[in-house]
Design brief:
about 450 residues; Pectate Lyase C-like; Immunoglobulin-like; 2 domains; eleven-stranded parallel β-sheet; about 5% helix
């Protein structure tokens, strides 16, 4: 009896883990088929969804599926097209939302979702939409024309409108592209009451924003957080009440009140503050839509690794190549081999430690040395007390012993002159930093003399 009970338990567990597949074909005459094969496929997606339980998959083949009602999903299922968004279209007919995914742990993959009163609607960020084109949807007097909440991965949001976010609102977007979405009191990309042309609220990672607009403020994003994004526009690239990390703006960000920028590149940021730079990002071909970085871009290896969560960039390539993440949505994939990417004589890592790109000719806090001199000498440019100093002592044998504050990675030279008008002559060169001192046994009997210490990067 006990053995039978155990066998029955195992059998029930196996049955409960079984997942079914259902099939949908727009060319079928109706929904009377069992949907268990292509020969018995349903005509509508909703009819197949209604058969599912958690873990099932609905396969949808080529065709345009014009809706007479919004597709509602409540189970943890996968709805997947056979041949991708170019061949499989869900059309809201200008009247209905396309997908209502509620809070289910479902996945919708490989569709063009268009012409809906909201493309995708979710209760939270649990549902996932993957490899979809979400286009020309509207959300009149509502949030998220393309998508409200949910999580979008590798999607294109194009030409959506809403009063509170045309492309996406209050969701998460990973490796997505937002093109030509509009936020205004009657529609927008991601915005509230005309705020945020690209995305309103939520979080966006490794995304590209091109020519999104807003009726009020925040053409790209508003009230959101962006990580490693690239923002492009010929008219408006502003960010409203958002926090931005590791991102690139062209031509500039035109930031409004309440926005914060860290390790980002834009011409109207403050160079060196919070790791930001103001250099031109140097895209491969901005005029023709290639926003990858050139090999000499100042954005290479200039981001902040602590806020990186994606393993890949927008193109699907490794997100970090040389130990430090690049700014923007695209990671440069070659080894640049340059410790000084902006060719100003100062190592990139040192500049990064000082808060970002430095002006080598500017005077550091000690009021004496330039930033370049501070870097070479190993000084702290922000500390007024940080100076290169030498002291001279007499040995018992009356030798002159010179000591200085040496720094690793440097070599030193000692020069001597009896008359400053005659210049200096070298006493010793290539003194390793570990020595930190030099003993002059030649000039110990001279009544007067001058020493000079030279320092070079090793």
């Amino acid at each position: 009896m006990k053995r039978n009970l155990i066998l029955l338990t195992v059998l029930l567990a196996a049955l409960s883990s079984f997942s079914a597949e259902y099939f949908v074909d727009a060319t079928r005459p109706d929904d009377t088929g069992a949907a268990t094969s292509w020969a018995t496929a349903k005509k509508t997606i909703q009819a197949a969804v209604n058969l599912t339980v958690n873990g099932d998959t609905v396969w949808v083949t080529n065709g345009t599926y014009v809706l007479s009602a919004e597709i509602s999903v409540t189970n943890a299922i996968t709805i997947r097209s056979v041949n991708g968004p170019e061949a499989t279209i869900v059309d809201g007919n200008g009247v209905f939302g396309c997908f209502s995914l509620n809070d289910s742990a479902c996945t919708v993959s490989g569709f063009t979702i268009e012409n809906g009163q909201q493309g995708v609607r979710c209760a939270d960020t649990t549902p996932v939409v993957v490899n979809c084109v979400i286009a020309t949807n509207r959300a009149d007097f509502a949030s998220g024309g393309g998508m409200f909440r949910g999580t979008a991965q590798n999607c294109i949001f194009r030409g959506n409108e809403a009063s509170d976010g045309g492309g996406m609102a209050e969701g998460k977007s990973y490796n997505c592209t937002f093109i030509g979405n509009v936020a205004n009191p009657f529609g927008g990309a991601i915005g509230a009451n005309g705020y945020g042309g690209g995305q309103y609220g939520g979080e966006t990672y490794n995304c590209l924003f091109i020519d999104n607009t807003a009726g009020m403020l925040g053409c790209t994003i508003a009230f959101g957080t962006a990580y490693n994004c690239t923002f492009i526009s010929t008219s408006c690239v502003d960010v409203y009440r958002s926090v931005v990390y590791n991102s690139v703006f062209s031509p500039e960000k035109s930031a409004n009140a309440g926005s914060e920028f860290y390790s980002s590149c834009a011409s109207d940021l403050i160079n060196g503050v919070n790791g930001n730079i103001t250099s031109t990002p140097l895209f491969v071909d901005e005029a023709n839509g290639d926003f990858r970085l050139q090999s000499n871009s100042p954005c290479i290896n200039w981001g902040n690794n602590s806020v990186v969560s994606n393993a890949t960039d927008l193109a699907g390539n490794p997100r970090i190549v040389e130990g430090t993440v690049d700014m923007g949505a695209y990671e440069y994939q070659e080894i640049v081999g340059l410790a000084d990417s902006d060719v100003d004589g100062i190592n990139d890592d040192w500049e990064r430690q000082q808060g970002g790109n430095q002006n080598p000719g500017a005077t550091c806090s000690n009021g004496v040395n330039s930033i370049l001199q501070a870097y070479i000498a190993g000084l702290d440019p922000k500390n007024p007390q940080s100076r290169f100093q030498m002291v001279a002592d007499k040995s018992p044998a009356s030798d002159n012993i010179l000591r200085w504050n040496a720094t690793s990675g440097r070599v030193y030279s000692v020069y001597f002159s009896t008359n400053l008008l005659n210049g200096f002559q070298p006493l010793e060169t290539n003194i390793p930093w570990t020595a930190g001192a030099f003993t002059d046994t030649v000039h110990k009997v001279d009544g007067q003399g001058f020493y000079k210490i030279g320092v070079e990067l090793k």
